[in-house]
Amino acid sequence: MRIIDNVVSGGGTSSSGRSAEVFDPNTGQVQAKVNFGDQSTLEQAVAAAQAAQPGWAATNPQRRARVMFKFKQLIEDNMEELARLLSSEHGKVIDDAKGDVQRGLEVIEFACGIPQALKGEYTQGAGPGIDVYSMRQPIGIGAGITPFNFPAMIPMWMFGMAIACGNAFIIKPSERDPSVPVRLAELFLEAGAPEGILQVVHGDKEMVDAILDHPAIGAISFVGSSDIANYVYARGTQNGKRMQCMGGAKNHGIIMPDADLDVAVNDLIGAAYGSAGERCMALPVVVPVGEDTAERLRDKLVSAVGSLRVGVSTDPDAQYGPVVTAQHKARVEEWIQKGVDEGAELVIDGRGFKLQGHEEGYFIGPSLFDHVKTDMDTYHNEIFGPVLQMVRANDFEEALKLASDHQYGNGVAIFTRNGHAAREFAARVNVGMVGINVPIPVPVSYHSFGGWKRSGFGDQNQYGMEGMRFWTKVKTVTQRWPDGGGDGSNAFVIPTMG
Ligand code: NAD
């Protein structure tokens, strides 16, 4: 049995004896065991981070960037291996797994430019003989708690920026697919990072709580489901930490009557069913505007969904693979039943799908619902599976209101040929990331990623300049070098520029 261990400078073994099984979702077989750390593992990691971080922060940013350049090269060299490993634990198809690695790598590319991003501000002559300048300094030790669905990209969103800014970083990956974060940490060390700068501790709620309560950890980034994001945010901020917590999603795709339906349907099925719907930027809700649009869309969707190929994650012709665990498969199928019970029309039922030769794999066929209503639980909640729900809207205002009023506000997309409608929609919708004829509007690495409402707790986005700000503190210096003569000002009155 393959054992996945903590990556902690000096060993990181744990006496907890707790572990979890890691499955191959294609077969339903256990393929590895991940050893959970405990409080002592975390203490060891924190001590190593404390020892390494001051030297790393004092290393000039150009040298830190060189480690990022080398790391980028190593990821490229190991892309195939990383993608296969990722796919074998997560279940997403190989090309999609490469995309997962690549989107994280793009944040590393941004982090290669950290000397430029970290430059402070300077005002010469802010007062008589007075200059003011600001500098960005690292927090010290940062931590990341990540979900199962992007085991390469999301860890790199976090540690790429945090470490380039001069922090040490401890990551607690999802216990369901922990191998890729471990491999990334090994490659990071190989790239020349000092021991203790990037470490991995495994576990579940127990380890998360230990991280949230550790006084030496100054900032924590979390990505996962909303209830846990909310809990993590509350406990971390209560402990005085800087927190950034991204939660779940229920992204809407608005189809205007003038949209190019063939393009929109192609985009929609990729965004709804790709990665078996296990993406926080998936489009699980489609909102056709007007009855005529709805009928035309439904016909095209039924035919497109009917020709989708579900297969093992190594099948180059498969469009999506299994979901991550047996429990998750059961939960998604319960949601489908709930949709039926609530009165939505199940146009295509993906339950009971069996892949020949892989009967124990966690496969779910694509499901399509029509006539989903806003008071249904299945509309209100995230299903996170290959299920597309159609909610019909009468007009633009109703479609805009649907996306704006939903409890989640991660992403949204509008499909139209009308620039005015698109512009109006982007300006008014109450959602953090908007696509205009772009189904999955995950911003490029030099912008930043973040949802609104219950999709994001905290006030700084992931990566880009927002990420740099999250992982650093501003220090502002006001300096004067008197010539000895004095300026005659009254030191008892607060200085002003009046
Ligand atoms: P999850 O919330 O179950 O787990 C996320 C992390 O929290 C894991 O590391 C897990 O070990 C830990 N955790 C689990 N239970 C905990 C508890 N009770 N207390 C403290 N920590 C706990 O999420 P998941 O199933 O791994 O990932 C899927 C979810 O993540 C979906 O809701 C998806 O929308 C969301 N997600 C959001 C974004 C985003 O940027 N908004 C990106 C990716 C995924």
From TrEMBL:
<dbReference type="InterPro" id="IPR016163">
    <property type="entry name" value="Ald_DH_C"/>
</dbReference>
<dbReference type="InterPro" id="IPR015590">
    <property type="entry name" value="Aldehyde_DH_dom"/>
</dbReference>
<dbReference type="GO" id="GO:0006574">
    <property type="term" value="P:L-valine catabolic process"/>
</dbReference>
<dbReference type="InterPro" id="IPR016162">
    <property type="entry name" value="Ald_DH_N"/>
</dbReference>
<keyword id="KW-0560">Oxidoreductase</keyword>
<dbReference type="Pfam" id="PF00171">
    <property type="entry name" value="Aldedh"/>
</dbReference>
<dbReference type="GO" id="GO:0004491">
    <property type="term" value="F:methylmalonate-semialdehyde dehydrogenase (acylating, NAD) activity"/>
</dbReference>
<dbReference type="GO" id="GO:0006210">
    <property type="term" value="P:thymine catabolic process"/>
</dbReference>
<feature type="domain" description="Aldehyde dehydrogenase">
    <location>
        <begin position="15"/>
        <end position="477"/>
    </location>
</feature>
<protein>
    <recommendedName>
        <fullName>methylmalonate-semialdehyde dehydrogenase (CoA acylating)</fullName>
        <ecNumber>1.2.1.27</ecNumber>
    </recommendedName>
</protein>
<dbReference type="InterPro" id="IPR010061">
    <property type="entry name" value="MeMal-semiAld_DH"/>
</dbReference>
<keyword id="KW-0520">NAD</keyword>
<dbReference type="InterPro" id="IPR016161">
    <property type="entry name" value="Ald_DH/histidinol_DH"/>
</dbReference>
